[in-house]
Amino acid sequence: MRIFTRKKIIILVLVLAAIFAGRHFSSDSPPSGMQMGQMPPAEVEVEIVGEHDITIWNEFTGRLEAVENIEIRPRVSGAIEKVHFTDGQMVKKGDVLFTIDQDQFYAESARAEAQLAGARSQNLLAETELNRAKKLFAAKAISAQEYDAKKNAAKLATANLKSASAEVKLTSLNLGYSKVRAPVSGKIGRPEVTQGNLVQAGTVVLTTLVDISPIFAAFEVDENTYLNMQSPNSETMVELGLSNDAGFTYKGKIKGFDNQLNTSSGTIRARAQFDNADGKLIPGLFSRIRIGTSSAKAILVDQKAIGTDQDRKFVMVVDDKNIAQPRPVVLGSEYNGKRVITSGIAVGEKVIVNGLQKAMPGAPVKPVVKTAIGAK
Questions:
Q1: Of 42, 54, 68, 160, which residue has the fewest beta carbons closer than 10 angstroms?
Q2: What are the pLDDT tens digits along the chain (376 aa)?
Q3: pTM of the full predicted structure?
């Protein structure tokens, strides 16, 4: 066992004391006025919140609808002789779509014409006999009974002539109906009945036809949006995008609203009208519609300033004492790379836009103003 002498112990104590004193008065000591472990305030970049006249856009979803959606049915019975279109073809009003066998209608038309000619002859004879009977009755050469019979025969002949004329018109209509024509211009569907099949008048759908130029988009809007659009000083803009569009390609206008609000959902049905000359838009497609109202006042902040805490959104505000404070906000729509804040912050406040990760709630920060967002 090693034995320390009294002299060695004294020397060891003096050495340890010198080491401790050197550390205590080292140049690495914190500066005067700062406690051990305290960090300087984090430098953050802030924007001063301002108010802007902007176009507020509200987005909705809906479906495209045809202006006219027609089921083409035959108006006469017979065999389909020919189909004159292909699936999805654009047709014009009056174009022939189907031809039904016309032989029977030509025959009926010829029979009706013959009956009309006979009725005219009978009517002419009846009128001649009536005129002769008038003279004879005036001369008291025939009885009143015979004269009345001639008048009745003339009336009957006239009625038969009218009936024969109506029959000619009917057979002429049926002959025309044997060519099934497009009632409006639009996009035709597929033929549901092909050549050679027998069809009964009005009982079968031959095909469908939709008028898609222009075309409607149907969607539901909330009560506030509806009321804002009814303001006399409001200028409404409507744009539409399809599911594969990055933006909103089509420009349109509001066509109208339903006549009542759905009290269970708090929405009202609206229809917007869009030009569709190229026929790309077809009924049933999912659509994204956005409605813009001009000259609206709004508070904007940079997208980078918005944080998420579970299902809540917040921004970090620097108060008058340069302390970072979290502030829950309600977000509106996007606008030129920024986000509309509908509630939570006020004009003139400083919002952290860079260095958000360094700003601890309740901790001091060193704000550097990036730019003032047009505070008014």
A1: 68
A2: 444 455 554 554 444 444 444 444 444 444 444 454 567 888 899 999 888 877 777 889 999 999 889 999 999 999 999 999 999 899 999 999 999 999 999 999 999 999 999 999 999 999 999 999 999 989 989 999 999 999 999 999 999 999 999 999 999 999 999 999 999 999 999 999 999 999 999 999 999 999 988 999 999 999 988 887 887 666 788 999 999 988 898 999 999 999 999 999 999 999 999 999 888 899 999 999 998 876 667 888 888 889 888 888 999 999 999 999 999 999 887 777 788 888 899 999 999 998 888 888 889 999 898 765 443 4
A3: 0.61
Look at residues 217, 282, 213, 246 and name the one whose alpha carbon lies nearest to residue 62: 217
> Residue 36 class from Cβ within 10 Å (0-12 exposed, 13-18 middle, 19+ buried)?
exposed
Burial class (CB in 10 A: 0-12, 13-18, 19+), 359: buried
Which tokens sit at 222? 């909330």
Task: Return the CATH superfamily for domain 58-67+211-296.
Answer: Efflux pump adaptor protein, beta barrel domain (2.40.30.170)
The torsion of the CA quartet 294, 299, 304, 306, rounded to 10 degrees, works out to -120
Interatomic CA distance for residues 33 and 190, integer angstroms: 87
* Domains of the chain, residue spans: 42-53+297-372, 58-67+211-296, 102-177
Cβ proximity of 361 and 324 under 8 Å: yes
User: CATH classification of 42-53+297-372, choosing from 2.40.128.110, 3.40.50.2300, 2.40.420.20, 3.40.50.1240?
Assistant: 2.40.420.20
